[in-house]
Amino acid sequence: MASAQGKTSIGEIIGFFLRLGLSGFGGPAAHIALMEREAVERRGWLKREQFLDLVGGCNLLPGPSSTQVAMALGYTRRKWIGLAIAGSCFILPAALSTLALAWAYVRYGHLPQTQGLLYGAKPVMVAIVVQAIWRLGRMALSRWTLALIGVACFAAAMSGAPPFAVILTAGIVELLVVWQRARKQEAPGIAWLPAGMSGAVGAGTGAVAGLMPIAFTFLKLGIVVFGSGYVLLTFLKTDLVDRLHWISEQQLLDAVTAGQVTPGPLFATATFIGYLLHGVAGAAVATAAIFLPSFLMAGAVGAYAGRIRASRPAAAFLDGVNAAAVALMAQIALVLGRAALVDKWTWGLGIASSVLLLRFRINATWVILAGGALGILLQVVR
Q: Is 26 helix (H, G, I), strand (E, B) or coil?
């Protein structure tokens, strides 16, 4: 994929994704919104259409979507080394902070008080997501057919349709629309593969589980979980609680809480569970196994997303996928808003964050940190 600027230094990539990993509260939609604001709006690393293509392509993959977008974004800057750095720096803060919470949980029997942090940080993340939806939506829904697809996808997501099915259907519908339009215009034959891609086609707590079973279990999860980090929870309950009986439902809920209150991907919940099962070694194995497939798949998105635009059918399919991706972000923003904007303080914080981000263009990281600190203060004084 062509970049908007020259090659980015390794130090800049490390700093960008490490800061993102330290401040990325709020789940996949919030992470993608932060990346769009920083990589597209502030740094000009790539065009908004190119970023949308990365988001759309990664939404078709199993595994943690926002982590894969970070990896694919890193690939556009420095190929595979950029991907490895981006993924590692985005994952590491979440894994280490979740590991610290797991240690405290095992030592003291409960999680530290973290509700104040979420209370203040979530309204800020809602504002960031809404801002990204506005910017990305103007491009993704630029034609009336795409706007209709976006509305339909939003309605389907609100009714509980699986995200992968929504995204795949949207891509197919837009592909059929473009194909039908081409037939009416009696367009010449359409190249179904962009240049350069033809050769790629056809080519309980305690140590209750060993490291190899942990590795295989979490590797499987990294391959088969479609949707978002929240879909992972269903698989964790089915495999680890109901089938293998490695942990209890309460331990799973505590692991999920740890994943939510720490920045970065919710898939870092695996770190917490791995620690419960086999200490630090279990945490390292579970984390590495669940994220490993993403490093390989995101590289393919980073390598080929730009070339897909050279094929009219493939580009049409991707346009539909992008429209669905924005619709899913809108659905998640609504869900986050209902959970985050619960009283006058959170509404005030959400509105103030929107003003700071849109009008004064304050760096989102500082707004998130300020919101979290204010939330902790409010919880203490009330």
A: coil
Task: Quote the CA–CA distance of 66 and 79 in Å, as a whole number.
Answer: 18
CA atoms within 13 A on the CB side of 76: 26
Distances (CA, A) of 327 to 26, 64, 110, 155, 301: 17, 18, 37, 9, 21
The two tokens of residue 327 are 């619709």
List, for residues 4-35, the tens digit of each pLDDT value.
Answer: 445 789 999 999 999 999 888 767 878 888 89
For 103, the token pair is: 């240690």
Q: Which pTM does this prediction carry?
A: 0.72
Alpha carbons 162 and 226: distance in angstroms, whole number:
9
DSSP letters of 76-118? Answer: HHHHHHHHHHHHHHHHHHHHHHHHHHHHHHHHHSSPPP-HHHH
Do 244 and 296 meet the contact criterion of CB atoms below 8 Å apart? no
What is the spatial distance between Cα 29 and Cα 236, in angstroms, rounded to a whole number?
21
DSSP symbols for 204-228: --SS-S-HHHHHHHHHHHHHH--S-
Whole-number percent of the chain with pLDDT over 70: 87
